Amino acid sequence: MANIAAQRIKREFKEVIRSEEVAKCAINVELVNDSFTELKGEIAGPPDTPYEGGNFVLEIKVPETYPFNPPKLYLNKIHVRFITKIWHPNISSVTGAICLDILKDQWAAAMTLRTVLLSLQALLAAAEPDDPQDAVVAKQFRECRDIFWQTARHWTHVYAGGKFLLNRWYK
Amino acid sequence: MEENERVAQISRERSSLRNENNSGRPDDEEVRQCWVCFATEEDDPNTDWVQPCSCRGTTKWVHQTCIQRWVDEKQKGNSTGKVSCPQCNTEYLILFPKMGSLVMILDAANNLIYRVCPFVAAAVVVGSVYWSAVTFGAVTVMQVMGFKEGMDIMEQADPFVLLIALPSVPVLLILGKMVRWEDGVLQFLRRNTKKIPILRQILPSFYSPEEENETAVARGINIDQPPLSDPVSATRVLCSALVLPTAATIMGNLFFESVNSNLGRTLLGGIAFIAIKGALKIYHKQQLFTRLTQRHILDYTEDNAALIRIARGSTGQ
């Protein structure tokens, strides 16, 4: 791995660990291997959303050309070790690919693992159904919001461990 | 000249700024951190820093080398493209050193050639096709009229007329080939063999008792005829259109030797060729159609499987 990428990820890693969001358990980053090319991210489902109480695990791949190119994030890639499926218009319910502009052409080198994870958390709170990644979910989101909410909550319960709040929902 | 002085002044200012930076900070701000590599001033003190946009705080300072790499990444090979800060949208001020006039001329020439080449290439292709068409037209005229008469006609004609008329020969042949008259005839025969008894006797293969189909229709099953026309193959249309004059000449020489005029002989030969070919094509299509409508799917039994194996073996499939 290029020296600049490794150096930067090390610094960013320290930044996340020290950040107040980690202290509040809103986000977290863990190393997967020693080379800093692959990380495991975690974000808590934001409150007042169907994802509340869920813990969403992400696979983060850092390219050789980081920070000139964005990191690659997958939310629910079933065939790798992290399994957190999510029901969200901007995240594929099958592949886990995330549709977020800052992970594509709007990436800026000043962004960090911490800001990316926080942006993703914001995406969970405010979906963009007009720029969908999963057409089925986006259609449901637009046309029958109740069913969408229930499905998203169910998936949070089943795949992201949102147990307590699910019980509250069914009561 | 004025510009050169200005550039020199900017460079002087830049270097003085750098010296200032290296020898302690003039303004008492926090430790600088590069927003690309995240290294701070303390990590490597001997690097060139720049403040390329109006961002403040953690994205104020960046290494000269790091921002250059970022600009490269954004320009994607177009070294004169504009790049802006992704946060504050300030366009980066990229100053190129002044080069000699030779470099400027080479630059301009390079750009010009880059832009003109696609058009030249297109013109070469179009021109080649055009001259091939002219040549084909001339060869066809000589073939159809006879060598001597053809040469005479072309020598007498206005060169401009020739330049338009000759290439239109292959074009017209191809357009003519696109008319699929055989399909029309086939449709007509299929519709009318039932109604006209004479046709039924001459062409028994077009008449099929339709009782089975009628029962199927009665059960509400739509038995559509399979699509009549097979898809048009461009290469096939091209080849058969271009081969037509040769075929017409050969046919004319074979069957219409008594006709004295070359043109008349070739015309008769061409009509005969098209008619025979069309008849064969219609017959073949009708047979294919019959084969398709009269097929059966058998019960799966050992006997039937053996039967199919034998049938396939005999047709070599």
From TrEMBL, chain A:
Active site: 99 (glycyl thioester intermediate)
Pfam families associated with the record: UQ_con
Keywords attached to this entry: ATP-binding, Nucleotide-binding, Transferase, Ubl conjugation pathway
Parts of the chain that traverse the membrane: none
Domain UBC core: from-to ranges: 4-161
Cross-referenced InterPro entries: UBC (IPR000608), UBQ-conjugating_AS (IPR023313), UBQ-conjugating_enzyme/RWD (IPR016135)
Any one Gene Ontology molecular-function term assigned to this protein's record: transferase activity
PANTHER family on file: UBIQUITIN-CONJUGATING ENZYME E2
Family listed: Belongs to the ubiquitin-conjugating enzyme family.
Full protein name: UBC core domain-containing protein
Automatic annotation (TrEMBL), chain B:
Record bears the keyword Hydrolase: no
Pathway involvement of the protein, from the record: Protein modification; protein ubiquitination
Keywords, ordered alphabetically: Membrane, Metal-binding, Mitochondrion, Mitochondrion outer membrane, Transferase, Transmembrane, Transmembrane helix, Ubl conjugation pathway, Zinc, Zinc-finger
Top enzyme category: transferase
GO molecular function terms attached to this record: ubiquitin protein ligase activity; zinc ion binding
Mode of membrane association: Multi-pass membrane protein
Entries under InterPro entries matching the protein: Znf_RING, Znf_RING-CH, Znf_RING/FYVE/PHD
RING-CH-type domain residues: 26-95
GO cellular component terms, semicolon-separated: mitochondrial outer membrane
Annotated source species: Ladona fulva (Scarce chaser dragonfly)
Catalytic reactions on record: S-ubiquitinyl-[E2 ubiquitin-conjugating enzyme]-L-cysteine + [acceptor protein]-L-lysine = [E2 ubiquitin-conjugating enzyme]-L-cysteine + N(6)-ubiquitinyl-[acceptor protein]-L-lysine
Protein's recorded name: E3 ubiquitin-protein ligase MARCHF5
Chain ranges passing through the membrane: 112-139, 159-179
Record's compositionally biased regions (Basic and acidic residues): 1-17
Protein localization: Mitochondrion membrane; Mitochondrion outer membrane
RING-type domain mapped to chain residues: 34-89
Major localization class: mitochondrion
EC number(s) stated in the UniProt entry for this protein: 2.3.2.27
